[in-house]
Amino acid sequence: MTTLLWGILPYVILVLLIGGLIWRYRYDKFGWTTRSSQLYESKLLRWASPAFHYGILFVLAGHVMGLLIPESWTDKLGVNEHAYHLMSLIGGTAAGVLTVAGIVLLIYRRRTTGPVFLATTRNDKLMYLVLLAAIVLGMVAKLTHASGEGYNYRHTISPWLRSIFTLQPKTELMVGVPVLYQIHVVVGLALIALVPFSRLVHMFSAPLQYLFRPYIVYRSRDTERLTARPERRGWERIGQ
Amino acid sequence: MKVMSQIAMVMNLDKCIGCHTCSVTCKQAWTNRSGVEYVWFNNVETRPGQGYPRRYEDQQRWKGGWELNKRGKLKLKQGGRLKRLAEIFSNPVLPDIKDYYEPWTYDYHKLTNAPLGDDFPVAEPRSLISGKPMKIEWSSNWDDNLGGAPEHGDLDPMVAKVREQAAEKVKFAFEQTFMFYLPRICEHCINPACVASCPSGAMYKRAEDGIVLVDQDSCRGWRQCVTGCPYKKVYFNHRTGKAEKCTLCYPRLEVGLPTVCSETCVGRLRYLGVILYDADQVTRAASAPRETDLYEEQLGIFLDPEDPEVRAAAERDGIPYDWIEAARRSPVHALISKYKVALPLHPEYRTMPMVWYIPPLSPVVDALNETGHDGEEADNLFGAIDTLRIPLEYLAEIFTAGDMRPVRASLEKLAAMRSHMREINLGGTPDGSTAERVGMSAYEIEEMYRLLAVAKYEDRYVIPTAAVGNAQALEESVLPEGCSLDFEGGPGMGGSGPVGEASGRPAPVAVENFHVLADRATADEPADTGRSRVNLLNWDGNGRPEGLFPDREERQ
């Protein structure tokens, strides 16, 4: 079970994420959108959507800091464990509260505004379930283990996650991790796997290039799109 | 000098009878799908009136177009790049569906399926957005023919502007009022604010013909273009989550056919042709400090195709020979630059619009006739143009950022043309003095008459095709290397992809239409079932397709 959850599952998820993204980009560029529902309702969205999105961006930054940056690096910067814990607890909770408030409002809006609910697919519902679960479980895990110095995941979960990327998963590190954290990690992995196959895929089209391109875009007429497909390869059968 | 070519349009408002044929044929051709029920790439507004979407000209509220910053540089009125990205999660100035109108259909089924009874069955209106019964309160031309003008007339942002400046009030008592129709499509601007505000870079201006398009594969639905366009001519498809807009019927233009709206125009008031302009001058011209100079500035960047230097430069910059020749014969160039009777729509937005309008003389002539004067006599007309200040000021707010001189000059030329031609029709020989009064020769007046009044099909539309080498390939139906159904994934095209409606690769337009038509022609069952959501505008009333109405249980 340890090997399955912490040694095999992460790689399955990675393959699903990368393979899924490639598949989606190749076969469904047209479906790759935010599917905004602002046209139907904008009063609630005006507050809920920025709250959620800015919140989740802070949460993401927190995860990068806690999981990908080794403890030894922050030690060298002179940040001791207590200071780090306080920072992560206060910053993380603030971002978490913002995110939860945002998503709860968004889900409320989605359920109660008729047109928005009509435009909600089964895919969306599954995505919302997993997304909400991942966020709430993360908050619960953090706050349950907040007393004193808190739970130092930087000795267990973080090295384990980094070991995934070096292709030598240290599954034994995850054995003693509190069960709430374990559940959060698994649900989080499920969420990552969902990204390419749900509307969450829009996170990969964050338009940062907008800051650097010229205002007016010119393009030449694309004759390729309207012509027949290019010549077939020679080894394909011709005729019957 | 960098010469670029653009296909531009001019509309002669004097001849518009407000029949909405252009709107309807455009709708049939482009937006009769679900998700764009509320969208009219072409709409006809009665002015004075609020327009569609309501009060779109109020840029204090909608933040469309460009403005000058403190250093006199162009910037988007909705804010710079960082502000755009910061507000991307919820666009604060996006019109919502009520600002356009809530689209509806009727519950036609009740008409045929109602049990026998004493009452006539009624087809209730149902919202195409929520599926619920609704009260129809507004549409894209609800104030057609000044309907409701006494109540709503004040809401026209241009009326408000005129009132600020004129002591006299624009009256809305029906019999005293003037009105005209304003058909609007995308302006295909030279300095398009929608393109500039697209974060994904999915919107672009085509280098060959200046048509502004949305790349449906790169659009990510950030909705900034809807705000960016001051004419509110980019729309959000609420089903696919992508922006859509008028394409100037580029598949038709590429093979030399006029747009659908032009082709079907009953009044024959639209003109299509090539304009050559100097791309190096665009930014300078668009940043003219005074708004009233923008019309002249835009005229200034247009190049004269009769000038041999311009022709040489155009050839150097890769403009095909037949395009340069088309520019010489272009009716649009003649009306805009030669006769100077056509004016741009709201140049003060600084987008350099490329659909221009010949202002209507009819309100003036009508007013004259009503007072018992001869509405086509030159002196009467010239006098009336000056005295009827309200129509003039109102037209100036729309076409020249408030400067009355170009509007007056244009109207005077039209007036001169009327009296000059009347004299000929009555058997006289005009001495050309009327023409001289407006700075034209009798010959020019008669040429203009041929273009505006006789308006032959081949004079109105001078459209060079896409490069001849491409022409065959561009015709979808005559694919050179095989069958038109022979595209990737075809011919078994079918319905929705796994990740939402209309996901997956798009099918060529002709193939898609073929399947839809074949379906409807042969089906005993409701068209479209099981394949995608039903498009109510296309629904033939046959059966009760899945997803058309909420489930019965849910309704109770």
From TrEMBL, chain A:
UniProt-listed InterPro entries: Heme-iron_electron_transfer (IPR051936), NarG-like_domain (IPR023234), NarG-like_sf (IPR036197), Nitrate_red_gam (IPR003816)
Record localization: Cell membrane
Cofactor: heme b; Mo-bis(molybdopterin guanine dinucleotide)
Cellular component, GO, one term: plasma membrane
Lipid bilayer topology: Multi-pass membrane protein
Principal location listed in the UniProt entry: membrane
Keywords of this entry: Cell membrane, Electron transport, Heme, Iron, Membrane, Metal-binding, Nitrate assimilation, Oxidoreductase, Transmembrane, Transmembrane helix, Transport
Annotated GO biological process: anaerobic electron transport chain; nitrate assimilation
Residue ranges constituting the NarG-like domain according to the UniProt record: 3-221
Binding annotation for heme b: H53, H63, H184, H202
Pfam families listed in its UniProt record: Nitrate_red_gam (PF02665)
SUPFAM superfamilies reported for this sequence: Respiratory nitrate reductase 1 gamma chain
GO terms, molecular function: electron transfer activity; heme binding; metal ion binding; nitrate reductase activity
TM segment ranges: 6-23, 44-69, 89-108, 128-145, 179-197
Domain of life according to the entry: Bacteria
Family, similarity comment: In the N-terminal section; belongs to the nitrate reductase alpha subunit family.
NCBIfam families xrefs: narI
PANTHER family listed in its UniProt record: NITRATE REDUCTASE PRIVATE CHAPERONE, REDOX ENZYME MATURATION PROTEIN REMP FAMILY, RESPIRATORY NITRATE REDUCTASE 1 GAMMA CHAIN
Function, as annotated: Does not seem to have nitrate reductase activity.
The protein's name: Nitrate reductase-like protein NarX
Native source organism of the sequence: Streptomyces coryli
TrEMBL record, chain B:
Example GO BP: anaerobic respiration
PROSITE patterns for this protein: 4FE4S_FER_2
Comp. bias (Basic and acidic residues): 520-531
Gene Ontology molecular-function annotations: 4 iron, 4 sulfur cluster binding; electron transfer activity; metal ion binding; nitrate reductase activity
UniProt cofactor(s): [3Fe-4S] cluster; [4Fe-4S] cluster
Main location: other
Protein name: Nitrate reductase subunit beta
